[in-house]
Amino acid sequence: MSKVQNMIDSMLRFSVEKLLILALLGVIACVQTNEASYSNLVDIEPHDSEEVIIEKAANVAPSARQLAWQKLELTGFLHFGVNTFTDMEWGHGDEDPAIFNPTELDARQWVKVCKEAGMKLLIITAKHHDGFCLWPSKYTEHSVKNSPWKDGKGDVVQELAEACREMGMKLGVYLSPWDRHEQTYGTDAYNDYFVNQLTELLTNYGKIDEVWFDGANGEGPNGKKQVYDWERFYSTVRKLQPEAVIAVAGPDVRWVGTESGYGRSTEWSVVPANNKDQDEIAARSQQEAGIFRPQIDAMAEDLGSRDKILSAKQLAWYPSEVDVSIRPGWFYHKSQDNQVKTPEKLLDIYYSSVGKNSLLLLNIPPDKRGLIHENDVATLKGWRSAINATFEKNLLEDATVSVIEGGSAANIGNILDLNDESYWLADDNAERVILEIDLDKTMTFDRALLQEQITIGQRVEKFSLEAWLDGAWNEIARETTIGYKRLLRFDPVTTDKIRLIIHSARTNPAISSLGLFKSPPSVSIEPAGGVFIDDMTVILSSDDPAAKIRYTLDGSEPNEQSAIYEGPIVINKAVTLKAYAYIDNQRQSFVKRASFNQSKYGITLKNSFSEKYTAGGNLALTDGLTGSNSYGDDHWQGYEGDDLDAIIDLGSTRKINAISVNFLQDTKGWIFGPNQVIFSISEDGKSFTEIFRSEHEIPVEDQMVSIQTALAKTDGQSARYIQVLARNIGVCPAWHPGDGSKAWLFVDEITIK
Predict the structure, then answer these.
(1) 235-269: burial string, b at 16+ Cβ within 10 Å, e else
(2) pLDDT, tens only, 135-147
(3) What is the pTM of this model?
(4) Is residue 437 within 8 Å of residue 497, measured between CB atoms?
(5) For the chain, how far is it from start to end, CA to CA, in angstroms?
(6) Percent helix, strand and coil across the chain, each rounded to 5?
(7) How far apart are CA 614 and CA 748, in angstroms?
(8) Under a CB-based contact definition with an 8 Å cutoff, are residues 135 and 200 in contact?
(9) Is residue 367 within 8 Å of 329, Cβ to Cβ?
(10) Is there a contact between 617 and 533 (Cβ–Cβ < 8 Å)?
């Protein structure tokens, strides 16, 4: 995928702020393990050999605050503020505080829901880009103290802090450096203002475990941009909350580079830091507040391989955080109540973030009531239930492990206790490691968990897992890095013996945990939804041969009285199919959902739509379902740089009274309405006569999200074929952040009367 495409995808997920990540602070911290000293920042000298560099890389380890953060595994983000009440993602800074008036705000509900979902820390958007403060800051009037909520005497941060303490949840704060309200923004005085507000948050609410900064740096109300005093910001955090990690535009935690929820398959926590000359390194190497600016392309696929570290001037422990929202947007929007990610989707994200040596930061935005919405709660419950069902029993509890190659048997049993503080260490000169595990009896499994003891570094570069099948060793998984945690998914395997092979490591690897698990059965629907004209055949299946399937076709939740699947289902009308797999009449899987809609007409498209925004295929444009003002609602069909050129076959010659087509305009998402729409008609599908043309102006600035409709009244003209041509503006205009990159055209329903 091209860099431009990556940028477009990031913008479509409201992540432009992350592309502006700025200065980062470097801090040296050491831990003592087995009489060796490990640092989270190490210098590479010009005369260091490759062997020495690899040895140094292997001994870079997390600071105490980084290690505590990594062990959280799953944290929550609460985007809440005036945007919740204006239905926007980025406020302008001129909002009236009177609009902030949650009617049932309950921070205890937030904490309870998130804790039950497995989160260990919650971060609140104490101030977003609009500058509105969720606490009564004495440095601005743009805060809750001038809202009607609790007669101006409320404090959202305080209520969340108290709820977190009560329920044993850690607390984090997000304070946006960009401020579209504050008049001093763009001057030196703003850095004083920012530090004053940061000080309020870090002194008035007890222990803070994470301070989350982004690097967004747009214009303030005076049209100026700010030069942020990052070193001062970081020093303030270190002074007032020394145990707090600073992320993402910070020294302790880096952004993974996407807001999709998916991390890299090869994720190194040890990465190069190349922008300091050796004199500066020497001068600052022991200073807590020194500036540290790793030159990291957050979106690069490879950050820490041997090729990268061999040319480094410094190496730093800089782990990744994967952030994603449970909804298409980061703030609550009523229009997205039916677009909450499914438990199944969140589970896939979990394996692709926590399961790939990253921490998952999941955003759950409270609604206008001040509550986490019921749909979000249901998804979180289903998600946690699936995680618990999979990992509640380690199938290696009664297993025995032998060292075949690479070290002694001393402490080898530590790898089976799933205790991340104990470990087994291979020999110093081991070129590869082979550990054989006898399961004690034949078992079926499809998940594996591995962990390194990262307090002495991240070392494994390549490993595989094999099972003894039909008298021979068969590879069931092969991957690269392990790090703090690696979760593997593969087809079910039945065996009584496995082995772990570490093919390559930077020095002797330290393995902390190895576990095997069996996930609950799942159900599949094929096809997974779509649009048809006459009828469609649907097939249900489960990955567990012992499972049966119950289903409904009316959108209701299936239960013990629902139909049992016995063979292909023929659908000849619009339906919503829901199904689950069960064993011994006990439900075991997620409820899988698929919508099938019937189209009145056939349609052909000259240009291809994006695979990311298909809306269900060609026929979706005539299925009678209309999209909302969110591009992610599965009804919009997206064209990247291309025109919509559609020919509709009515099946026979008919009189036409009107033709219309809908377009989405969301300029912040790089989505623009067409600059021209043409309707033409034909009897033979070859020779067309134009009957309508409309011209549309290209926006000259960001605009509110809107749905545009091109409508032509045709006064009963006769035709069998109708051509709808909508011209994409091609590239984003000069004023837009995506200037010169492909613009998106989003199309929904074509209606013919």
Answers:
(1) ebbbeebeebbbbbbbbbbbbbbbbbbbbbebbbb
(2) 999 999 999 999 9
(3) 0.81
(4) yes
(5) 41
(6) 20, 35, 45
(7) 10
(8) yes
(9) no
(10) no
